[in-house]
Design a protein that fits this description.
The longest helix has 12 residues. This protein has one domain. It is α+β, with helices and mostly antiparallel strands and about 70 residues long.
């Protein structure tokens, strides 16, 4: 992880939330919600690994967090 990511994740880990990378859990989750403001947070590779019926939604500031083009 980069330093900026660690600063952003620190409050969540202090509140008792387990912080994991998307690649580590993508096969097991039922819902993915983005709220980062970053580009391509969820990629085609992530979507290929998702369970059938997994719900993906974007709560961020732009429509580029989920890579729907590829």
């Amino acid at each position: 992880m980069q330093a900026a990511e660690l600063r952003l994740l620190l409050p969540e880990s202090m509140d008792g939330f387990r912080v994991v990378k998307l690649n580590e859990v993508i096969r097991n989750v039922d819902i993915v919600i983005t709220a980062t403001g970053n580009k391509n947070v969820v990629t085609r590779e992530h979507m290929d690994k998702m369970k059938n019926g997994c719900v993906v939604c974007n709560m961020g500031h732009s429509n580029t967090e989920i890579d729907v083009v590829s």
